[in-house]
Amino acid sequence: MADPKTSPRKYAYSTPSFPGLLHLNSEQAKRFGGTEFDNVTSALFVIDVMARKLARRRKNFNHQVVADAVSKTIEKMQTEVSNEIQRMETFLKKEGISQRPSYSNPLERKFNISSPEVMRLTHLLQAFDTLISLIDTAWLAQKLDSDEASDFRERKTNDMRKMVKALIKHGAAARAMAYANNEVEVQKDIEKVEAQVAADKQEREAAGFVEPGEVEEDVAEVAEAAESAA
Q1: Is the CA virtual torsion 122, 124, 128, 134 positive or negative?
Q2: Is 208 left (phi over 0), alpha (psi -120 to 50) or beta?
Q3: By CB neighbour count within 10 A (0-12 exposed, 13-18 middle, 19+ buried), where does 124 fall?
Q4: How many angstroms separate the CA atoms of 24 and 108, rounded?
Q5: N or C: which end of the chain has fewer CB within 10 A?
Q6: pLDDT under 70 in the chain at which residues?
């Protein structure tokens, strides 16, 4: 006879994922590789889960419209970065510069690719890192002065930051909707992802990883001053 106190086991849905490895060299790209990366990938997950939930409940709700809007946000930035990479590669080739810089403290971390949007975001981050490397190449080869290089890095970093903030904002709105509407299943999925993010961060910190966003501003200012004096 079954124990009346024993709760029946719920069916566990099986979801696919790829193991991912993020390798970022430049300081500008590294800023998006720690907690910021966790926040935006979590946001992408919440947006997708909540949109699918609404699509099942409301016949007039189109999940694909939401998915396309997210994809276009990422793809717009990807196109801008790709065009800049092509322009810089053409410029460096014309100048006869083929060497690329090495970096003293690259960031490397593992993560799960759980959706096409996360895959696109990862490709974008790697492309952004490549673009910054090309700018660093032109600066080291004395084809760009310090002000030009700094302005370019800052402008592109701000563009990336705006895109990331927009995605995180949409994710926060979807999360709030899940809790406001008492979507218990979605809440459990969100809590599971957030718990995994917290556990991953603790594991990184235990291994000695310092979050890029936690670096003091005066350290960045010292680095910029040293670059200008070079």
Answers
A1: positive
A2: left
A3: buried
A4: 7
A5: N
A6: 1-13, 58-63, 212-230
The pairing of beta strand 18-24 with beta strand 107-113: antiparallel
In the chain, where do the E strands start and end?
Answer: 18-24, 107-113
Asked if residue 41 lies in contact with residue 109, where contact means CB atoms within 8 angstroms, the answer is no
Q: What is the pLDDT of residue 109?
A: 85
Angle, vertex CA 28, rays to CA 24 and CA 32, nearest 5: 65
> Residue 160's pLDDT is what?
96
Residue whose structure tokens are 């291994």:
207
pLDDT of residue 219: 40
Instruction: Provide the 8-state DSSP code for 17.
Output: -
On whether the CB atoms of residues 123 and 85 are closer than 8 A, the answer is no
- Give the separation between CA 11 and CA 165, rounded to whole angstroms: 35
What kind and span of H or E run contains 72? helix 63-94
pLDDT computed for residue 230 by the predictor: 45
> Residue 189 pairs with which residues in a beta bridge?
none
Cα 129–225–81 angle (5° rounding)? Answer: 20
**Could you tell me the pTM of the whole model?**
0.81
Token pair belonging to 168: 């995180």
